[in-house]
Recover the amino acids of this structure.
């Protein structure tokens, strides 16, 4: 208990108590009555005094009560406060989780974010008069909602303005931000002036974190400045029942692209087994429904209690029955559109009950082969589901612009040059066998022969499922690459295969030709690799990689909050992005070939207007096991420190004058009763 | 009550009531010797027509009382003895202290009416009636009146009584006992609320072997006070005051104390042969005289 204005108590008591006592000294003004004799009255009064145990007290009990009443009134005027809040420094930092899992609707009809905001506002209410606070909201990135402020109302308004996102939680940036802000806290001043806190000293700040504990990067957070005792983690929410889509894959059948295959991985994060229906929609039309039963999630420890090396739950292998895959096969779908899978279940988190995938129309990749004649390339390209046009190098150089270009870009998805170097390179995707594009910083030197290939990047998409061990090349040209180029296959002294991306064009450059010519001009196989199946796979990978689309027809989705870069029509001044919530973002695009869009905090389908065909729609999916696992964590491990979360609500200093007033009224009533008992017959 | 309504407020007795009183006479439980021959037979042998006994003649006896018929028959001298008729001393002591000047109906008026009625009965029966007003001693006196014709003096005396001063029963009793050695009926009309106590006064009277009747007269306001709140109660007699906060508890305690006080007086009287009577001024005075006094044996 403390008093905000103790001086008022002294003033009020000083002004009222002495007059009351003085009045009692002056006594009551009694009315005079004549009686025949006071003999019996005096005797009666004496009897009463003798019979009452606290006769002295009884005579002045009204005075005592009135003094108490005055005292209570004076105390109430002193603004008494019940000190229930945690002791805190004069500087408070409030971190509020706004990630997807905070959208869980709890039993009382409030979301976790609402609860977190409420608790945060209670911290503000409990602030001392001279304290100041800042508010940081965090999801996959941290936002300073309010810098240090002492205005409680303004702080509460700022807290209320924190919006729900459907992004992942990342605490590291928020903690770094908080630490950065507290670096400049002035902890005191001396005659020389302000004295700043040295870096080695923990900033005198109390940190309140309001989260459900589902934080992806908790293990990466290092507490460099803050004292662990000054960090209070308040856990919000209780619900654990949630089923979510953690992966979705929609692809066209390789053989028959009109057939669509959609597989969805669903996990039950709740403690009870569930049975649910998954509905497949294509462009809003119900296409298929499948049922699935999932077992409960094994009693996995809270996130913070897990191994610090793997904050993301790895229990899928241990508890297969909580994870299931639904495959929608043999869906005939010839056009392009939006594929959506919806889980029919009423669970804690709705953001992970839907997943979208954008499917392109089934079409063959347009390939231009510029070659003087290459049997190997011809035959390989014929086996692939491609539309291939052929030109000789001379035809290509002389071709009309309309034949090879569509605006600034190449008319073809991929242009393959066989042993031909050229400078005619509109924006596009190029694969050079033996030749090189005429670009700054890129040149071809002497011929290297009889060297072995000893290093390659087997993780690169073009080398997926490709055996490079058997690749032997008789000779190739030494390549001089610009710094931004990436070597995919290295020979002993020079790159053999390199990748360069420049000015919205992609170049894959092979240092060797498929066919070499001997002194007499007879063609020879420069490598036997072309006769292997690896070559076919390599060509398939290369064309898929360069064309940016795959024959499976599905585009990659992005996670909430992740930025996306999309090519746009060159003449656009402004691109409208239609968000899933109906809001239209206007992105200026004058003079840009593509836009970078980062306001992807909601799951759903985003549409660009105007947009380039094939790049005008993208999907944002949660696909986040950490966020879908909505059961609040009991502890939060920040780096090496494990903080126990407190589920109890934040206690704030509450004004206690009402209790004093209530006591005052009770005493007043008591005084009235005693007074009446004395005077009424 | 019907009688009372015919009376003027300050009139002590009305004629109707006096007519009814004519039928009554005072009764003394003791036979007293009076100064004058009256209408009462005493145990003393004396000159009256009521034969009492015979005794042998001794020389010196009045020869007029010899029974000559006996002498004729027996030749012996016998003296005829007669019961002597004497008058009765009736003393009415009226408390005229200030405390009697109070109440509704008025205690003093009530006492004077009772005194008037008793005096009238006494006068009618040729008793020797003395009236006294006392406070801290005998202050007013009308002694030795006899005969109906003196009733006017009695009324005049009673009307002129003034209520003042504090009461002192002890001093009064002592004074009265000294001045009135003759036995007789003594009727004390008082509220008996005396700070000095009533015991000494009564003891002085008892020493003279009077036939004492004590009538305690209290007003309804004393018996059941209608007081409440913070009061300063002032004593009418001595200006003494009591500061009280009158509540239910105090009132109950007062009533219990009053009851005990009256009970104490009653017991005191009973153990000493004094007839104690209690009345509230609310009780109609004529009924009180006609029925209550007869019931208690003062009148017949």
């Amino acid at each position: 208990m403390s008093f905000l204005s103790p001086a008022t108590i002294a003033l009020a008591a000083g002004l009222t108590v002495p007059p009351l006592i003085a009045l009692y000294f002056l006594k009551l003004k009694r009315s005079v009555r004549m009686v025949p004799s006071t003999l019996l009255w005096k005797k009666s009064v004496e009897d009463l005094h003798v019979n009452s145990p606290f006769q002295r007290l009884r005579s002045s009990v009204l005075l005592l009560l009135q003094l108490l009443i005055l005292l209570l009134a004076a105390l109430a005027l002193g603004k008494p406060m019940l000190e229930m809040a945690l002791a805190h420094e004069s500087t408070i930092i409030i971190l509020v989780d706004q990630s997807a899992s905070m959208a869980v609707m709890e039993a009382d009809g409030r979301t976790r974010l609402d609860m977190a905001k409420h608790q945060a506002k209670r911290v503000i209410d409990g602030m001392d008069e001279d304290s100041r606070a800042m508010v940081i909201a965090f999801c996959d990135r941290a936002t300073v909602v309010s810098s240090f402020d002492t205005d409680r109302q303004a702080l509460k308004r700022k807290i209320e303005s924190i919006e729900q996102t459907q992004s992942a939680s990342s605490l590291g940036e928020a903690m770094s931000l908080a630490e950065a802000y507290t670096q400049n806290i002035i902890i005191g001043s001396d005659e020389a002036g302000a004295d700043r806190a040295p870096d080695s000293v923990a900033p005198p700040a109390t940190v309140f974190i309001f989260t459900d504990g589902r934080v992806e990067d908790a293990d990466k957070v290092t507490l460099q400045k803050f004292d662990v005792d000054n960090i209070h983690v308040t856990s919000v929410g209780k619900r654990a029942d949630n089923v979510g889509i953690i992966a979705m894959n929609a692809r066209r059948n390789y053989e028959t692209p009109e057939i669509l295959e959609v597989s969805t991985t669903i996990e039950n994060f709740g403690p009870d087994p569930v049975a649910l229906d998954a509905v497949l929609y294509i462009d809003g039309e119900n296409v298929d429904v499948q049922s699935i039963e999932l077992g409960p999630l094994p009693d996995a420890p809270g996130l913070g209690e897990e191994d610090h090396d793997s904050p993301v739950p790895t229990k899928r292998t241990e508890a297969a029955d909580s994870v299931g895959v639904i495959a929608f096969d043999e869906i005939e779908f010839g056009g392009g559109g939006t594929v959506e899978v919806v889980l029919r279940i009423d669970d804690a988190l709705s953001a992970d009950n839907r997943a979208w995938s954008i499917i392109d129309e089934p079409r063959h990749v347009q390939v231009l082969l510029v070659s003087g004649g290459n049997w190997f390339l011809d035959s390989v390209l014929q086996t692939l589901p491609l539309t291939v046009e052929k030109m000789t190098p001379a035809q290509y150089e002389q071709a009309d612009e309309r034949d090879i270009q569509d605006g600034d870009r190449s008319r073809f998805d991929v242009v393959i040059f066989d042993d031909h170097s050229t400078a005619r390179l509109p924006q596009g995707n190029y694969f050079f066998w033996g030749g090189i594009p005429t670009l700054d910083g890129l040149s071809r030197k002497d011929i290297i022969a009889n060297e072995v290939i000893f290093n390659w990047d087997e993780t690169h998409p073009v080398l997926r499922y490709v055996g490079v061990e058997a690749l032997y090349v008789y000779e190739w040209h030494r390549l001089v690459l610009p710094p931004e180029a990436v070597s995919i296959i290295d020979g002993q002294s020079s790159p053999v295969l390199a990748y360069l991306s420049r000015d919205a064009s992609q170049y894959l450059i092979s240092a060797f030709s498929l066919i070499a010519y001997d002194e007499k001009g007879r063609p020879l196989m420069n490598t036997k690799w072309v006769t292997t199946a690896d070559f076919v796979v390599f060509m398939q990978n290369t064309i898929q990689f360069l064309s940016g689309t795959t024959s499976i027809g599905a585009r990659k989705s992005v996670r909430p909050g992740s930025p996306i870069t999309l090519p746009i029509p060159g003449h656009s001044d402004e691109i409208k992005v239609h968000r899933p919530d109906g809001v239209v973002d206007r992105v200026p695009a004058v003079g840009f070939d593509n836009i970078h869009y980062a306001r992807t905090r909601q799951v759903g389908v985003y549409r660009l207007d105007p947009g380039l065909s094939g790049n005008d729609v993208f999907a944002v999916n949660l696909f986040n096991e950490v966020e879908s696992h909505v059961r609040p964590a009991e502890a939060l491990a920040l780096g090496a420190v494990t903080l126990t979360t407190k589920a109890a609500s934040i206690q704030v200093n509450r004004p206690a004058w009402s209790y004093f007033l209530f006591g005052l009224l009770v005493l007043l009533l008591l005084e009235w009763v005693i007074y009446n008992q004395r005077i009424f017959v | 009550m019907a009688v009372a309504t015919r009376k003027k407020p300050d009139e002590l007795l009305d004629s109707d009531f006096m007519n009814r009183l004519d039928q009554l006479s005072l009764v003394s439980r003791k036979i007293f010797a009076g100064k004058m021959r009256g209408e009462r037979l005493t145990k003393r042998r004396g000159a009256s027509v009521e034969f009492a006994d015979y005794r042998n003649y001794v020389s010196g006896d009045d020869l007029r009382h010899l029974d000559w018929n006996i002498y004729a028959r027996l030749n012996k001298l016998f003296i005829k003895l007669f019961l002597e008729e004497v008058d009765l001393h009736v003393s009415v002591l009226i408390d005229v202290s200030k405390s009697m000047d109070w109440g509704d109906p008025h205690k003093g008026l009530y006492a004077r009416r009772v005194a008037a009625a008793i005096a009238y009965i006494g006068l009618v029966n040729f008793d020797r009636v003395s009236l006294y007003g006392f406070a801290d001693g005998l202050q007013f006196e009308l002694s030795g009146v006899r005969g109906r014709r003196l009733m006017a003096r009695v009324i005049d005396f009673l009307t002129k009584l003034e209520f003042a001063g504090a009461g002192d029963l002890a001093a009064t009793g002592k004074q009265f006992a000294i001045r009135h050695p003759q036995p007789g009926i003594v009727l004390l009309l008082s509220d008996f609320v005396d700070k000095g106590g009533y015991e000494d006064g009564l003891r002085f009277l008892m020493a003279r072997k009077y036939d004492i009747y004590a009538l305690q007269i209290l007003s309804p306001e004393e018996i059941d006070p209608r007081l409440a709140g913070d009061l300063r109660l002032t004593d009418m007699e001595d200006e003494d005051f009591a500061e009280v906060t009158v509540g239910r508890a105090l009132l109950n305690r007062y009533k219990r104390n009053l009851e005990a006080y009256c009970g104490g007086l009653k017991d005191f009287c009973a153990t000493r042969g004094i007839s104690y009577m209690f009345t509230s001024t609310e009780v109609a005075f004529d009924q009180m005289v006609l029925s209550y006094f007869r019931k208690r044996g003062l009148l017949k």
Observations:
- Residues 1-7 of chain B have pLDDT under 50 and may be disordered.
- The first strand of chain B starts at residue 40 and ends at 45.
- The first helix of chain B runs from residue 2 to 6.
